[in-house]
Amino acid sequence: MTGAAHTHMRIGEVAARTELSLRTIRHYEETGLVTPSARSRGGFRLYTEADVARLMVVRRMKPLGFTLDQMRDLLQATDRLDEGVASEEERQALLDRVRAYEREAAEQVDRLRVQLSRAEDFAETLRTRLDGDAAAARP
């Protein structure tokens, strides 16, 4: 086995590592978010660690309510930063875009914490009610 072949993973392994379905990974490919780095002779999609990292970014953005366009925009900005060839002005603009996503993510995390707290309070209210009803039913 060559070194290059060893660094590639098939979609099933990527799905297991990212906890995304094959259908979701294929959808992200169709929308241009994450494309496999290569194809095997048999036509199988082959992914690298960098592809897995991109999928993890997408997986983490989705529950925070980011759209596919926003995911694509963030990935394009980070790709451009990683290339290291942007002018200082462009680099600052790219960093501003990434900072905006970071702020939006932090705000959404705060909103989710409030929702979680309310959900926990509600579940506790129901447990208390059920415990009270169970105690009242005892002879």
Considering the chains and any ligands shown, give keywords for the structure.
139 residues; mainly alpha; three-stranded antiparallel beta sheet
Structure description:
With 139 residues, the protein is mainly α. 72% of the residues lie in helices and 5% in strands. It contains six helices and three strands, in the order αβααββααα. The protein has a three-stranded antiparallel sheet with strand order 1-3-2. Helix 5 (68-83) packs across helix 6. The longest helix is centred in the C-terminal third of the chain and has 50 residues, at 88-137. Residues 1-5 have low confidence and may be disordered.
Brief digest:
The chain is mainly alpha-helical and 139 residues long. The chain is built from six helices and three strands, in the order αβααββααα.
Q: Can you give the mean pLDDT?
A: 92
Number of strands: 3
Which sequence of strands runs across the widest sheet?
Answer: 1-3-2
Run of helices and strands: HEHHEEHHH
- Helix percentage: over 70%
Low-confidence stretches: 1-5
Rg is 22 Å
The assigned structural class equals mainly alpha
What's the end-to-end separation, in Å?
Answer: 73 Å
List the helices and strands and how they pair.
Blueprint: H1 3-6, E1 9-10, H2 11-18, H3 22-30, E2 38-39, E3 45-47, H4 49-61, H5 68-83, H6 88-137
Antiparallel strand pairs: 1-3, 2-3
